[in-house]
Amino acid sequence: MRTQISPDGSYVNEGMNCSSLDITMPNGEPHGGLTGSNEFILSASGKKISSENRMEQVNQWCQRKVKSACTRKTLHKRLPISRWLPNYNSSDAVGDLVAGITVGLTVIPQALAYSGIAGLPAAYGLYGSFLGCIVYIFLGSCKDVPMGPTAISALLTYQTARGNVAKSILLCLLTGIIELLMGLFGLGFLVDFVSGPVSSGFTSAVSLIIVTSQIKDVLGISAKGTTFLEIWQAIFADIHNIRAWDTVLGLTCIAVLLIMRIVAGLKVGPEEDTLKSRKHRIINKFMWLIGTSRNAILVVVCGAIGYVFQSSAQAPFKLIGEIPPGMPSFQVPLFSLTANETSSGRAESFSEIVSGLGSGLIVIPLIALMENIAICKAFSNGKPVDATQELIAIGVANIANTFVQGFPGTGSLSRSAVNNASGVRTPMGNIYTGALVVLSLMFFTPYFSYIPKASLAAIIIAAVVFMVEVKVVKPMWRTKKSDLIPGLSTFIACLALPLEMGILVGVGLNVIFILYHAARPKISVERLTSPGGTEYLIITPDRCLIFPSVDYVRNLVTKHSIRQSLPVVIDCSHVYGADYTAATVIDSITADFTKRDQPLFFYNLKPSVCAVFEGLSPVDFVVYYREEHLDDLLKERAYKPKQVLSA
């Protein structure tokens, strides 16, 4: 089926001639006057714009974008505080105050602990826990997200910056810039390439690595390493130096934290809330508050124990050491390092630092987005999540944290759960969390130095051990067993290799699975009878015809058509796209069928796909759109069923 192309480049798609829709114009012009064009594009006004004037079209597009960016809708979308602040009331303020203080009591001990995971002094976790919170109030779209350091971001920071303070702070700036640029260019969709199984495998592996990295502090020994295997090798190498007091304190703290976690979920009184008395509600709220504040309570108690024993000649516990009092200095991060500021003993320029940070500059922003989007989806109550806005929010927050010497952070799932359970109403709860961190920096840092390292390690272990996603294995096995392959591969690779390599292995396997499915479409073959009584073979591919799959489809079509020796109909109802390679294969198939004098027809082919196939002017390329037309087409081809002769 060929098309007649006019001198101006337009053409009428003759593949629509058999369509059941009659949209002929009154003047006799077919298909409603719709024509395609290979030489022109259409402007918004419907005028033809040649390639010479496309710069003018680009300018008009830019003007439209600028105009759309200056609307109230865009303002509310990109500055979410303008959407909820005008309706802010006293009830919201009370809910945010309670939630903000509760989260603040959680974030302070976690920030001190996560600094150790990042290989930095304890103060740097607090430095990254207050300014980002305030920034998120203005730009964040989810009320439950408390911006700050997380266990995963701390581990990635350590694997990227190797515990160097200056590099960690610069990494925070570069991470924020990359996240902001990804948001401005709408690249939030990149997180969609990390599937659920890969994400579960990555999170589970990270949890085990974090637990492993904290065992050394529970045992009171020294063990360095970046991967799971390296850390365990270092632990066994120094196991003879185990400290009994640190071990007892660490194990006791883990047990107490797990018990208090259970207490937070206990309820007294009748199951139905309406039947509970005021006394029951007070007791339940008290137990929930005690369980939720378990980290803060443990830090206070262990700090007091550390203070009592520190005066003895032989201190039984390893303490986190002195923390500089007061607020961090507001300063620009270092863009070059002297020989005294590097572990290699030689000066490094900005380009050398960036080169040394390597793939962490890409992995950390993506993982931060994954964490944040997971929180937003968990507490969105079915509402859509704006990944672009979240990228902008955490990007600007990380940029701000850089100037107060913080390391990369994002939303924390554990603190978000506390935030939600505390009744947070708006992102304004972050201001109370940030204020509590500021107060702790100004007045309580001298007392933080007495906190034993084993207690902070226990806090981390008791928190991240529940991030191991064992519960997803059984549902995954029931639904689609092949999804376990990328999940388990990611899990094993992240344990044996650096994290960025592990997640690349998982994403790579996902891409291979996607390409395999694209190259091997499902094809159904049926033997049917036309309304006129003629038997024919109908072959139905279930997806687009593109270069990885066309040879596979051609082989199947050829095999079944030769075996059956019947007219063949290719049902293209599910074929929504095609490419040049597919067009060449269709041209070859139609030629083969013509040589065998075997009818071949294409049913319900989309006009856009038809235009691709017609580009090579295939021989005897016939398309129809109504089943009753098949007998007419067979008559036109003078097809006669072959008679089977009996002996």
TrEMBL record:
One Gene Ontology biological process: transmembrane transport
Membrane-crossing residue ranges in chain numbering: 93-112, 118-139, 169-191, 248-266, 286-309, 353-374, 431-448, 454-473, 485-516
Cell compartments where the protein resides: Membrane
Membrane topology: Multi-pass membrane protein
A single GO cellular-component term on record: membrane
Keywords, alphabetical: Membrane, Transmembrane, Transmembrane helix
Ranges of residues in domain SLC26A/SulP transporter: 95-485
Major localization class: membrane
Regions annotated as coiled coil: none
Keyword Ribonucleoprotein recorded: no
Cited SUPFAM superfamilies: SpoIIaa-like (SSF52091)
Domain named STAS: residues: 537-615
PANTHER family assigned: SULFATE TRANSPORTER (PTHR11814)
Full protein name: Sodium-independent sulfate anion transporter
